[in-house]
Amino acid sequence: MDVSDAEMDIQEVASPVLHGQAAQNDRNGTGVNGYDNPEIPKNSHDRAGDASLKTTTGIRSGAIPTDPDFASRIIKPIPDFPVADQTHYVWEISDWNTTRRSQKVQSPMFECGGCKWRITLFPRSNAEAVSLYLEPQSPAKLRQVELAAAAVKGTKTDVEPADADQKQEDSKWYVCAQFALDIWNPENASAHIPNTAHHRFTSREQDWGFSAFISPRELTARGIMLDNKVNISACVRVLDDSCTGVLWGDFAGYDSKTSTGFVGLNNQGATCYLNLLLQLYFVTGAFRALVYEIPTDSEDSSQNKHADTLVNGSIVNAIRDLNIIDGHAVTDVVAQLSNAKPPEENAKSSPDKAALKRARIVALAMQRAFAHMQLETSPVSTLEVTKSFGWDSSDAFTQHDVQELNRILMDKLELAMLGSPVQNRLNSLFVGAMKSYVKCVNVQYESSRVEPFWDIQLNVRGLQNLQESFKNYVEPELLSGDNKYDAGEEHGYQDAKKGVHFQWFPPVLHLQLKRFEYDFMVDDLVKIDDLYEYPDLIDLSSYLGDVPDSIRNQNWVYKLHGVLVHQGTVSNGHYYAMLKPFGETKEGETGWFRFDDDRVWKVTSTEVFHENFGARQLSPQVLRNLSRSEQQEYYLRRATSAYMLVYYREEALPTILPNTEIVVPSHVRAQIEAEKEATLARSRQRIEALHYLTVNLVAVDNFKKYSGFDIFPDPSLKRSLGRVDFDPDSYPDQIKVRKDAKIRDLLRLIANKYGYDSEADFPFSVYPLKPRANKTSRPESLISEDAMNETVMSFYLKHFKKRGEEMVLFVYQPEKDLMAGSKDELTSSANEEDVILFLKYYNADTNEITGLSYVSTKKYTVLSQLLPLVNAALHLPAGSNLDLLEEVSNVRIEPLQADLTVEKNELVTGDIITVSLPGLTDAVHEKYTFLHTRVRVSISPSKITEENDFIVSSPVVADPPAPIEMWISSAWTYEELAKSVASQLHENVNPDHLRLFLVEQDLDGDSEDGESQIAKRYPLPSTVKLHQVFSKLHAAGTTHLEYEVLSVPLLEYESMRSINVHWLSTVLNPQLIRVFISKTSTVGDVISKVIEDLSLPKELWGGILAWTSVMFKYGDLMKFDMSIEEIPANADLCCGYFPIEVSILVDYNMYKPYTSNGTSAAVSKNLGPEFDFVHANEVKKCEQHEKSLNFIPVFHFQKLTTYVHSAPFILIVFPGEKWPETARRLSQKLGLDPKTAFDKMRVALADENDKGRYLELNTDMVLFDEIKRHDSSVSLALDHRERNPRRSYAQEKGISIG
Predict the structure, then answer these.
(1) Could you give the CA distance from residue 924 to residue 922 in angstroms, rounded to a whole number?
(2) β pairing state of 508-513 and 455-458
(3) DSSP H helix total and E strand total for the chain
(4) Tens-place pLDDT, residues 728-749
(5) Helix axes 402-416, 353-375, angle to 10 degrees
(6) Pairwise CA distance, residues 1081 & 388, whole Å
(7) Where is the region Disordered (predicted)?
(8) Alpha carbon distance 169, 173 (integer Å)
(9) Rounded CA gap, 974 and 971, in Å?
């Protein structure tokens, strides 16, 4: 409220003194730091904001309130936000003692930035502390004040109350301002207390300030109050935030789509790293167009789709011609480089159909995510994407590495594009090439190779900016001294320069900044927070190597379009992206947006660049001299840094960011529209359910089709599969009726349903079907005339009390009674005194129990009197005898006395009599037992067949037969199950040879074909009782079984064991052999299988060494006479040709060489020049150091020692051997080129707890001496990227997709 007669507790005590005109602007001052935006607590008045957390106190500028430039000196300028207006207002209080007796005092108004402002003072609000607030007057508030003042004075005013449009406009009002409030001595301005703050004033938060500015005692103690007088200054700087529109905003009611044209992505828990990658891919228009063209609509789409039929054909064709290298399309050049690689690295060029299908499931999820991001107006869920990866909820709460996810996802999409018009088209966008070389200094000799790259990893530590990182990357290393390069027989060892230079750069260049490094001392990653700058434009031509002029003379200028930011520490951080989605920028805007999970907003250049550079580390002394807000800003700058940079080639911008519309594939759009319609339909159903009730109607026609317990199939019962268990016609008919309708109205609907005249008297009777105590549902009492005026809802609540119970009515139609037309005295018209009995018949030929009819009769009727009618209905000879059983419940089937009456047999309305031919009572009981224990199963050939000689099932084919669906009993044994399954297979299958698996699907899986679901397979032991299995399964649903046909009986098969054996031709090129062998076998028997499988020459046998690998760590040496039971269940067996290691172990009586038929094999010779050289060198050193050599286990990891991979092994370590010689032996075992093996591999020593340190791999380093420095046993740890990514145990949390 303004100062007025209507506000009695506010006292106007002084006239304003204005220093400088309101129009005086300091337009050199700009925006806020953007870092300091904590939630600010409200003060005790519950209406004014408290800026005490956003305050700079004890300002060291030396400025005093009477200085002409006081406002400019005390308020820190903010880049990128122009100053709209600035003023310095002084409020003079001449009688402080009078003022302090008031609860609240407000200054006269002053103007700044088109708003009227005033200072609000609470002299004794907070524990006697003085509170100060600044308050602009919104249009709504000014209107309210003027109307209130006119009402008090009884005068007219031209101001009208706000209409709906004005209220809407008022709600959008805001003003962004930096301000300083200063209490000072009128006679001595140097005695003052200033505090600064900033705020976005809105209609919801119209004042902001300081709840405890200063205590009255301090006013005197600091010499601020003189002669009961004090001045209060307000320096206000209004900023223009039109470039972003969100300066200091709290995003309440913010709409990303309206403000930016983009939508955010919901965070599933810790998936911000995934969100920023998806947003980056989405705004890269050319990439989105390629993803849209991946064939995902049908299996044969990839065969029939041609480039001229692509929905985004013009963009795709432009991508194809985007990068021409020396007259050839980049896709062809990359293909040539890929074909030069070993076959195992090119395996993805010929994937199996299952791998391709999984890849296209991922591609479809990406297409749908992009389509939602393109079409929706609210944040999009990424749940479908992560499900297509095969992730569960734990992955959603695990932070993964952005770079790793980026590369794996690219591989998956590249695989999905095979066989389509966009095959290899990703190469045109993302693939460059670099040349690794070693060039001799003194002779004409050079060794080099060219290989493609998808991203470049640049060092950050110790470097100032991106240009320095590129120079560091291409800077050659001098090989000299003991580290000279072996230039072959012609030149021998030579001084040489080793390095890399670039052949070309891709149009979309991903630069990974190495902000994270592994520190063995803390056994964890550490983050490098140092200052590191990157430019908006960079010319990369100087980093090209010796390339043709046709390449060098191209424009290699790149423009920044993406900054992926990590804020926080290694253990607790957040990812977001700064992206520039358009090639052209509107006037007055930067074109940059911040994509931060579910929100997107415009940002300034400072926010893109300077705020993500990190910060230099300050000394503790410098930190202590900073104010609190400056310290907060420093720590935030240190924690916030760019992690990945995305540059677009300047001349390729029109193709990378096309101006043409990127069209969503029609099948994807149709799916989304269908899902929206389904969602709307469900919403309509929910609304309808508020007013309507579904009534289930059971009539005799339903009963006659039914073959289960009770008189109708109840989908809510245990083990029900819904409305598919039985004949579809056996299920109740359904009608909808308004809840407030009368029962009479319901009966009219029933009459219409069954073809009766709804206006005449109802010729049928209706009974509620209600649960009995024995868990059956039977007709109860007849709906009487008294209930006709009752509402349907009240009737439902009265008769169907169980929560969630459906309303089910039995409709008795007398014309369909078994006794219809009979004039016998037994005939009844179904009144309260009569009994309605249901009749079922057991057919021995079909082994089925089905409904026959019902009969309404008297209580005194003898059951035998009903038999002629039953015989007639069954077309049996007159006088045929029948056995009678009562179906009391699904577990009680009791005999009835035919010579007794209905009443004497204790039969009532709703009871069921099952009739059968004489002598079939046991068969009826067995059938009822089967119905009680039956389970629906789906049986199909095994999708995952173990590689062993005992599986004779046909291999998985492209179009496997449809699964066989059947009922089985949980009371069966495995033998009975196998016989039943074998009888259903269209092959001559011996049930003794049938191996069955229980397949459990992930309940969260939503794929129609189950491909995206996570399945677990459990082999069923031959001794299993099925009730042990099915009692633990879900009550409803079909149980999935798979089968294999064995060449031996299952009992014999179960006495065998499967062992994964890795034969190491070289350590990094293993061959996996799955050996299936008797549990009584030895390790030697396993090796014999390996020798046979690989056809190993006899000369290698004597040098075979075997050991276990337990979760990729070295386990134990395995002697050939050991039982395979000594191989741990969680271990694999590794073996290979290691003759030197074997000979040493034999000399120490620790090992015996492999023998065949008691004869030891010899050691091979002449296995290649490099092998023979290393072999001879090792033999020589073994002779020299026979008593002092050592063995060390070796394992592989990637970044973290918890992410281990590849096969472990042991390495001989010799005293005095320098690193170059050790490296040559080690690279030979790894199967790598010794000249380049350790270019991208780091070597460490780690103890049993995986703690240790990296080694400095200089020419003088002796590994033997490094090991001796450790008190405990250590392993050699090789840090390098996994060549064949796979996960072998659940504890590993590396990223996997599909």
Answers:
(1) 5
(2) parallel
(3) 38, 57
(4) 899 999 999 999 999 999 999 9
(5) 110
(6) 42
(7) 15-64
(8) 7
(9) 10
DSSP state of 865: G
DSSP secondary structure of 92-126: EES-HHHHHTSSBEEPPPEEETTEEEEEEEEEEEE
CA-nearest of 885, 814, 827, 888 to 853 is 814
| Among 143-147, 832-836, 873-877, 1159-1163, the least confident range | 1159-1163
Predicted TM-score (pTM) of this structure: 0.69
Looking at residues 50-78, what average pLDDT do you find?
Answer: 66
Burial class (CB in 10 A: 0-12, 13-18, 19+), 811: buried
Amino acid at 1147: D
Angle, CA of 286, 291 and 294, to the nearest 5°: 130
Residue type, 1102: G
Q: What are phi and psi of 516, to 5 degrees?
A: -120, 135
CA distance 417 to 349: 11
Contact call for residues 109 and 138 (beta carbons, < 8 A): no
CA distances from 873 to 23, 378, 705, 879 (A): 105, 64, 15, 13
Rounded Cα gap, residues 687 and 147, in angstroms = 44
Q: How far apart are CA 380 and CA 263, in angstroms?
A: 7
Say if residue 1169's pLDDT is above 90: no
Flag the least confident range among 429-433, 824-828, 912-916: 824-828
Q: Is the dihedral of CA 894, 896, 897, 901 positive or negative?
A: positive
Report residue 745: phi and psi, to 5°: -65, -40
- List, in order, residues 6 or more apart from 572 with CB less than 8 Å away: none
* DSSP code at position 202: E
Give me 2's structure tokens.
């303004």
CA distance 307 to 325: 22
For residue 1120, what is the DSSP state?
A: T
972-981 pLDDT, tens per residue? Answer: 999 999 999 9
In angstroms, the CA 431 to CA 409 distance is: 15
Contact 1074, 1090 (CB under 8 A): no
Give the C-alpha distances (Å, rounded to integers) separating 1136 from 8, 1034, 1072, 1142, 1163.
96, 47, 12, 11, 13
* Residue among 172, 161, 163, 180 at smallest CA distance from 204: 172
Give the pLDDT mean for 473-478.
Answer: 91
1157, two tokens: 């038929």
The encoded tokens of residue 1207 equal 């096969």
Give me the phi and psi of 60, to 5 degrees please: -100, 20
705: its two tokens: 């089709």
CB 105 within 8 A of CB 121: yes
